Amino acid sequence: MSYIYISYAPNDKLVAEEVCQGLEQRGIKCFVSSRDVKLGQNYGEAILNAIENCMAMVVIFSSNSNSSQQVFRELSKATEKDLTIIPFIVEEIQPSKSMEYYLSVPLVLNVSNEPLEQGIAKLESTIRNAEDPTHIKSPINQHSPSPAPISNKKSSSPTIILAITIVGCFLVIVIFISMITVSLLKYKQNTNGIVHHIDSSTSMADSDTSDIPDILATQDTPTSDVTKNIETSLQDVEKSSDPINDKYHFVHSTLPVGENLTYTTDVNKIEVISNSYQKAEFISTDASVCLSNIIDSLGWSAYEEYYKDPENIYSDFHESYIKEDLEYYIKLSQEIFEHTWDFDNDFSIKYKAKNPLPIELALNPEGKLDGVILEVDIVITAEEVITKKHKYYFKYVEKDDRYRYVGEVE
After folding, report:
1. Chain segment 357-395, per-residue pLDDT in tens
2. Of 175-179, 361-365, 376-380, 401-405, which range is least confident?
């Protein structure tokens, strides 16, 4: 059975459920994730299937959804599927630029200054009277008007029939003469017409398209100079007599410096000691795209939306929600996050992690989200190849509004 998909930020859960209940009491079936994603289901898969099979999407717009990565992704999927989107504004605020794009649709309901029940009634009417009926299918269009009955009245006068016949004959003659004229013109200008067509195509190709926005672009493309600067900025470290110590010295000292240069836009923030550098302000190079996505999704979506609801931190639903956040972004990158630093020809370090990233949630004694743990492999090639697993712990630092690397965990 067809249904309406209700998209909302986690902090708007109660509003979404009330809208769902109000619409279903009026005979419009809805999908709301808090109720319809069952425990044990793959959350991301359930959401994608629900969007793909719904007839339209209602978006609960508020200050919470205005910055919700989850809502953005659901809107993006709905746009990709050419679904009817109905923004349901419950809080009158200035939308972000990303959200403003999705709010620029014909069917927008602003109910921020009226009781929610009254707004739900308007929403029902909007859904049932949607301008494009190809998007809204049964059972919503239950009140579509019946076809007009065919009139059984006879013609009132033979004069009317005669007049219609004369006018019809005249139109046929005019159309016939027009067709002959057009054919002659086409024959005469055939060559010129072809040349003009080619010129027109060339003009289109050469036209300035710089003002056309690239809606699909999600982040700036880095220049190749970034990687070059990283490689040339690594400091040489004097080798000791013990090759093993040398290798781990590179892992815990030189490698973190290189990562800082990769991820940090402000060089003044670079610190040599590995357990004090910040995972922040990432540049999207091939080597750093996966780790930058940790900040993009966990730093904003997970912290802002989930940290405020510590009761959910223990549930499978909560953990799968965060992992789905990460997996969505990582699908945009390569299968393996990997980068190699070569030193002299006989020494190299490869830093890599699996995709999807193996993420664990770290909780503080109060049960709140305290940080995340990322498991990566360090592959060191010198006299021999050594691979060692490392679990890096990133703790959320409230004053910095970001995750900071604080050390390794066993």
Report:
1. 455 555 556 655 555 566 666 666 655 666 666 666 656
2. 401-405
The residue among 203, 185, 205, 183 whose CA lies nearest residue 195 is 203
Alpha carbon separation from 69 to 64, 87, 99, 121, 273 (Å, rounded) = 10, 16, 10, 29, 33
Whether 318 contacts 312, CB under 8 Å:
yes
Helix ranges restricted to H, 141-242: 158-188, 190-206, 225-233
- Give the SS3 label for residue 124: helix
Whole-number pLDDT of residue 185: 47
User: In the numeric block, which tokens belong to residue 143?
Assistant: 């009140």
Strands (E), 54-107: 56-61, 84-89
Query: Where would I find the beta strands (DSSP E) of 102-173?
Result: 109-110
Whether the ω angle into residue 356 lies within 30 degrees of 0, i.e. cis, is yes
> Between 230 and 59, whose confidence is greater?
59
Smallest CA-to-CA distance from 365 within 310, 292, 318, 410 is with 310
Distance of CA 272 to the CA centre of its chain: 35
**Which has the closest alpha carbon to 348: 242, 253, 235, 251?**
251
Q: What percent of the chain has pLDDT over 70?
A: 31
What is the spatial distance between Cα 342 and Cα 231, in angstroms, rounded to a whole number? 9
Give the pLDDT confidence score for residue 210 in this predicted structure.
34
**pTM of structure:** 0.37
Q: What are the structural domains, with CATH classification, of the chain?
A: 4-128 (3.40.50.10140), 225-408 (no CATH)
Preceding omega of 222 cis (within 30 degrees of 0): no
What the block records as the tokens of 39 is: 């425990």
Q: What are phi and psi of 143, to 5 degrees?
A: -110, 30
Specify whether the CB–CB gap between 288 and 263 falls below 8 A: yes
Predicted confidence (pLDDT) at residue 29 exceeds the cutoff of 90: yes
Q: Residue 275: phi, psi to the nearest 5?
A: -90, 20
Q: So what's the pLDDT on residue 250?
A: 32
For residue range 126-156, what is the model confidence (pLDDT) as tens digits? 888 874 444 433 333 333 333 333 334 344 4
Distance CA 231, CA 226 (A): 9
Token reading at 236:
């040489």
Specify the residue for token string 């033979």.
158
